[in-house]
Amino acid sequence: MKTNPGRFFEDYEVGQVIRHAVPRSVSGGERALYHALYPARHALYSSNEFARASGLPDSPIDDMAAFHIVFGKSVPDISLNAVANLGYAEARWLRPVYPGDTLRSESEVIGLKQNSSGKTGVVYVRTTGFNQHDLPVMEFVRWMMVRKNNLDAPAPEAVVPQTAAVVDPSDLVIPAGLDFSHYDFGLAGEPHRVGDYEVGERIDHVDGVTIEEAEHMMATRLWQNTSKTHFDATPRADGKRLIYGGHVISMARALSFNGLANAQMIGAINAGSHANPCFAGDTVRAWSEVLDRAEVDAPGVGALRLRLVATKGGEAFTLKGEDGKYLPHVLLDLDYWVLMPV
Amino acid sequence: MKTNPGRFFEDYEVGQVIRHAVPRSVSGGERALYHALYPARHALYSSNEFARASGLPDSPIDDMAAFHIVFGKSVPDISLNAVANLGYAEARWLRPVYPGDTLRSESEVIGLKQNSSGKTGVVYVRTTGFNQHDLPVMEFVRWMMVRKNNLDAPAPEAVVPQTAAVVDPSDLVIPAGLDFSHYDFGLAGEPHRVGDYEVGERIDHVDGVTIEEAEHMMATRLWQNTSKTHFDATPRADGKRLIYGGHVISMARALSFNGLANAQMIGAINAGSHANPCFAGDTVRAWSEVLDRAEVDAPGVGALRLRLVATKGGEAFTLKGEDGKYLPHVLLDLDYWVLMPV
Amino acid sequence: MKTNPGRFFEDYEVGQVIRHAVPRSVSGGERALYHALYPARHALYSSNEFARASGLPDSPIDDMAAFHIVFGKSVPDISLNAVANLGYAEARWLRPVYPGDTLRSESEVIGLKQNSSGKTGVVYVRTTGFNQHDLPVMEFVRWMMVRKNNLDAPAPEAVVPQTAAVVDPSDLVIPAGLDFSHYDFGLAGEPHRVGDYEVGERIDHVDGVTIEEAEHMMATRLWQNTSKTHFDATPRADGKRLIYGGHVISMARALSFNGLANAQMIGAINAGSHANPCFAGDTVRAWSEVLDRAEVDAPGVGALRLRLVATKGGEAFTLKGEDGKYLPHVLLDLDYWVLMPV
């Protein structure tokens, strides 16, 4: 068979490195599309001059766009036969991606655990994106439940990797040259610095965006994520497509500008849950909670750890029911570090 | 509160200059998206070679794209609490915007008049867009009705600015170097020169485009106009969003290519009314009426003053009822100057 | 009348050369949009580095994007009054199109044959696209049925051009420098070479994409194809628009990556039929059949002749009924040559 059947649980082994296909060059086109698809307004990604005044050579491609490209490349090799995405950890941005760069990615299998049913297992991978100079631009760990094809295949020795619950702020990689000493709060849109946010503070980002099929498909294709569930309406009676979870992350992150305009760069994602599926017609809103603050080693730059919650209706600041499960209106619960002026 | 509450009527004073946030760099990406979102075919904005043959260094970003970006930046500061946009005047394009340029904008409050209800007032601003060299690229006056938050705030002294009903052709700013002496009418698509249009002549632009939610939202986000009414379907029972008036202007202007292919550049907008709201599913058509002709000081270049009317059905060339009000199928009534070959 | 009425059958004569309007410059924006609109993953069009490793100066614009632009320019002059597109032949790609290039096109009338009804006739044209150096980038023959306006106009002498049923592989134009000797099959996504495909072999490309109105309109506008049937919903009771046939070609070609990842470049289209119309809501799938293999004169490069069939449901590998007519689920039947590693 010439087409890609994807890997099944028994096809993975710990230590295996899978080099993903189809490197991708980015340009101002990807940048413009990111702004057309999401209400993105963080100044560092909008203005070359603002980026240069912050010590970078030019305005990079949005951090989440870099994530989506690196992630998208891994889909045909890693998650084609996945039943469920179970989690993320230790996502770190290592180097900005600029127009003209070409990204590829590879994944190392770092854990395997067959489920007691014998029909599925959990696969843990660390995926790393590289630019055209073979320098890493970002990395993340994810784990998912994958079907077995040959149920007679023996269970592998169980290896469950230890990942950090939270990326230590000292492990955040600050882009070379980043300097917020001369930050223009007026141009950025808000006056709030790291020190203006209190741990425990919560922000309702107010605005909402109603999602369209055409938009999430354009976004998901742009990252060359070809998981058929996002494009093919025929399996569902209502003709809807399951929206790529990363589309919800980007939408919520962009909406969070209103109250977090200075949370310019994403340093790390500590953890993330896609609590409920998102469909066209849902109106996505977002709220944030300040989880921690930290110092980092760059002039004028500090770090804020945030919970970013995306919802489709429902009250802001509600998250889980008495049973400890996410309420039905919660789409995303993301724990991440941002870099912002002190 | 960390989120932006917007300004209320009592927060403005005449002479105040508001510097708008989030500068924006443009590239070939914005240009390609403009062509994907509107049926734009004016050759000067489509071909670098055509632009160079017309004396410009390169093909600029569409004039209306420049307007949308400059306008979009002003929304969070100026019109978040606006009840109604009441009018435009004295919009002039001062300098073409090229891929690689970064735009920011600022607004000066030039008039204030509290309404007799005491609950709202009219705010007049002159908004100017600047490129990365702090050179102005365009300017316009607009006025809108804005809510008071504190009803006890005293009424300001009424100041109503005098704006020109029509930009004098001698005030049109011709881009440096513009020269239509060697204009290629074949490549541009039509043979008609300024002198071929008679004052009073009317042109039905024939074609129609049915509007989709995904398209107007992508367009409006691309200009970083985050007015929630364009994105959030929840306030309306029919799940529709109010379409940004600028989307209708761009659509009508692009449709007007068929009959006005040589109306290459917009010199000024004299006045504009969004006569009725536009919603997804409407099929936008356009017709034009020639209002005036003028000479300008550039080789081979002349000016034509046009009325551009966008409709959603209804007969062409019908505009207002016997009561003097716009008929329900009229979306836009725009009075503007174009630059075209003599 | 200032608007374009289009040409009628009696307005054509054999030998006439029509220079089409509105040259178009392309950039990374067009490239990014192509990837947003189609699930395109062929590495040569995705990565500058992959293209350079294949001997090209940079990653070109997708071959089908070049076709769409050249074709789109011809619509106002050639097919505005066409009743039906009847066929394509001898489409050849002559030179890659790169970001920064500007395309224009012209058509030569190579055949005319009035129908026995006296109300319509068949017009045959050879359309050629040129870049800014006046070098041809592609050419194709198409023929369509066009209405007469003046039924009294005399029938022209019938001239029916002889076109090749299949482009001879020796007539394929290989881009200067193309070299697949050091081809990285891992980065390209599949291990299959020309020699791995057997004549008669059929491949079901598995994936499906449900089509949205917003997407096909953005695509069609991007190529400046302004045929109103693709944009104006009002003529049809169901509010749908007829989808540009080229949108289906691009969708099917992108879907064929899964099984034909190394079919990097299109060399020629031998013939193509839009078997049934495509509408929003249809889920497009694709299958291919290997028709021939050939050698070409470039290091490491070979040619494969393929049938590419797009469907909207129905079983793969079914094409025509017992009456010899296309089955209702078949959208496209395309016969084309690709260049791939040997």
From TrEMBL, chains A, B, C:
Source species, domain of life: Bacteria
UniProt cross-references to Gene3D superfamilies, sorted A to Z: Hotdog Thioesterase
GO molecular function: lyase activity
Xref: InterPro entries: HotDog_dom_sf, MC_hydratase, MCH/BMMD, Thiol_ester_hydratase_Rv0216
Pfam families to which the protein is assigned, alphabetical: MC_hydratase (PF19315)
Protein name: MaoC like domain protein
